[in-house]
Design goal:
The chain has helices at 2-11, 16-27, 42-52, 68-72, 106-118, 153-156, 170-181, 193-204, 210-224, 244-260, 268-279, 287-291, 296-306, 315-323; strands at residues 32-35, 57-61, 73-78, 83-88, 95-99, 120-123, 126-129, 135-140, 161-164, 238-240, 284-285. It has 324 residues and is of the alpha/beta class. The protein folds into two domains: 2-181 and 189-195, P-loop containing nucleotide triphosphate hydrolases (Rossmann fold), CATH 3.40.50; 205-310, Magnesium chelatase subunit I, C-Terminal domain (Helicase, Ruva Protein, domain 3). The protein is globular and about 70 Å long. GO terms for molecular function: ATP binding; ATP hydrolysis activity.
């Protein structure tokens, strides 16, 4: 994973948080929703990543006239043979970039989200599995809202994380300009999709202490019933809380983050670091919250202050090992 990150950093300047989350999503076999203005290397990142893992990459520009068949494929009649042939769509790839997903109508969004959940496509009654590993990175443009179709809360829940990508610093932008206007950097393939699948299996064997799982459960449950956890003043700001999928993704994401940081066990900081990215798109804010300019991140920070992570979750196991 270090080699992959090194190769991607040859091309992409800065965006360390974003790159780390992309690798977490790959290891945890989740999908990523990215929000950021145009020109922040979202497409470049995923394209470069595909090269480093010898995987396939497709980019789909979502537009209002897109139909599900443009995405998943369709059956085409062959006049010579008199038979129907299956034409596969761009979802049959390892890394799929769904650019400006909120510009496509609900039918297309549903078709994509079905593939994300089932890892297969049904065309004319036949099921076709997509290649493994399979990662969808969908982008949203926060600038223009005209002609957009907001993703329903129930469908957004399929994404493991929502990452906010910001502008680069002056120093980073200086390096970006020099790289883009200078000679192109060669990116080397450092692994294969089979090796990546092995890494995913190793990552899943990482240890998560029960106290950390309990912390994830409490944090997510507090978004549904804040009063029960001593933050009753937040109930007016939340219409709906996060689903059990959030708890699962919180544990899986923390485990993948620990793996990236060179550990086979999860620490509290792994879970607290990834919690905002896992929860921010799963909270449905009330009119009171919107009128007061509240954001999901504000509410998540307040919840995390009231529900502290366990300080020494591995203590009991260390003592048991010492005795044996």
């Amino acid at each position: 994973m270090e080699h992959i990150l090194y190769e991607v950093k040859k091309v992409v300047v800065g965006q360390d948080h974003f790159l780390e989350r992309v690798l977490v999503a790959i290891l945890a076999q989740g999908h990523l929703l990215v929000e950021g203005v145009p020109g922040l290397a979202k497409t470049l990142t995923i394209k470069t990543l595909a090269r480093t893992i010898r995987g396939t990459f497709h980019r789909v520009q979502f537009t209002p006239d897109l139909v599900p068949a443009d995405l998943v494929g369709t059956r085409i009649y062959n006049q010579k043979t008199g038979e129907f042939n299956t034409s596969f769509g761009p979802v049959f790839t390892n890394l799929l970039l769904a650019d400006e997903i909120n510009r496509a109508p609900a039918k297309v969004q549903s078709a994509l989200l079905e593939v994300m959940q089932e890892y297969q496509v049904t065309i004319a009654g036949e099921s076709h599995p997509v290649p493994a590993p399979f990662l969808v990175m969908a982008t949203q443009n926060p600038i223009e809202t005209e002609g957009t179709y907001p993703l329903p809360e129930a469908q957004v829940d399929r994404f493991m994380m929502k990452v906010l990508v910001g502008y680069p610093s002056e120093e980073e932008e200086f390096v970006i300009v020099n790289r883009v206007t200078g000679p192109a950097s060669a990116v080397t393939a450092v692994t294969t999709t089979d090796q990546l699948a092995d890494l995913q299996r190793i990552c899943r064997s990482g240890y998560v202490d029960p106290s950390l799982v309990q912390y994830a459960v409490r944090l997510v449950a507090a978004t549904r019933d804040p009063a029960r956890y001593g933050v009753s003043n937040m109930a007016q700001y939340l219409t709906y809380g996060a689903s059990p999928r959030a708890t699962i993704h919180l544990v899986e994401g923390a485990r993948a983050l620990a793996f990236l940081r060179g550990r086979s066990y999860v620490l509290p900081e792994d879970m607290t670091d990834i919690a905002p990215d896992v929860l921010r798109h799963r909270l449905s804010l009330s009119y009171e919250a919107l009128s007061e300019g509240m954001t999901p991140d504000h509410l998540i920070r307040r919840l995390m202050k009231h529900i502290p992570a366990p300080e020494k979750p591995l203590d009991t196991h260390v003592k048991v090992d010492a005795n044996t």
